[in-house]
Amino acid sequence: MFNIMYAGDRLTLRGIYLSIRSIVEHNAFPIHFSILTMAIEDKGEKGRAIKEEDRLFLEKSVQQFNKDSVVTLHDFSKRYQDTLQQTRNHKCKFSPYCMLRLFSESIIPDENILYLDADTLIIGSLLEFNKIDISQVELAACPDYLAQWWVRPGYFNSGVLWINGINIKKTHLFERSLKLLTEKTYNFADQTALNNLIESFVYLPRKFNEQRPIKKDSIVCHFCNRVLRFWSPIRPWDIRLMREVYKIKEFDNVYKDYLEKFPFKETGIPKPDYKL
After folding, report:
1. Which end of the chain is least crowded, N or C, by CB within 10 Å?
2. How confident is the model at residue 147 (pLDDT cuts 50, 70, 90)?
3. Does domain 2-267 bear CATH number 3.90.550.10?
4. pTM reported for the whole predicted model
């Protein structure tokens, strides 16, 4: 079974759903989706944990494409409160939910697992990841298109990580990164910690984490900070802007399902006022 991991709060559920829905559009094999979440009281609306009813909704959605696919939910609220909530990294410019991946060592299988940010959409076969040999390294990642100029050459983006579960648990990369964040503060928090402490990795081809306009060979499209609309990146759930500014229509089937099936009322997420 192919393993995939996400992290987020209940508002992020819309991004996770869109990403997962785009995956099953192009990948019919069984997939185990692991969702990491937590509740953070001082974040208000942006601090609500994903619920069991949300997990059931996601699992029902993916099983329409493959009956053997499963979704599991892991709540790290207590662990986060005991480690990072009192640090300055808790208030960095990026969501603290990005740091959830650092708590995942206890739930990562002894197999390869793909970590994806909730602002990714998939447009090809994820089996292409299996062609990337990570048997001798901790993970594979793509250079961060912008930060490799701001921070340093070779600095990788942590929004798409092809992880060797066995090696990660041997080197304790995530646990060591977590400890580092209790001692030091970074603008890019967990991403910088991973870049600073990683012992072995390989670069992924750009198609596995396309941070610019979609190409013919793109597989994972990552809608993080981009040159276009740099200071206000368009996220996948901003359907009107995705279609009218980015001119992206490759995900219309995904958006149709999102508008028809996503539990907007139950989750308290406003339904987009947009017709395809």
Report:
1. C
2. low
3. yes
4. 0.95
